[in-house]
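HUMAN: Forgive my ignorance: could you write out one protein's sequence and backbone structure tokens?

ASSISTANT:
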Amino acid sequence: MLLIYSIMKIKIQLFGPLTEICNGHQIETELVADTHTLLEVLKKRYPALKKSVFAIAVNNQLRKENTLLQEDDTVSLLPPFSGG
């Protein structure tokens, strides 16, 4: 019997200087339990993120607390910005 496993993924959108650190405007990674774990994974993969300041949004909602993640969620890393 042949079993096919599908790896659950989440999309991460990047903006501003974070695109240079992560080499693109969007990356995908395997699904992890929550935003804290995701940040740990990303900071290991892209060490320059450790020195970066950014906010996190999950499915277009800013999150200040640790948030559970689900398959096909979109996480955005948002550097500081100002309007005018």
The chain is about 20% helix and 25% strand. The chain has one domain: 9-78. The CA atoms of residues 55 and 66 lie 12 Å apart.
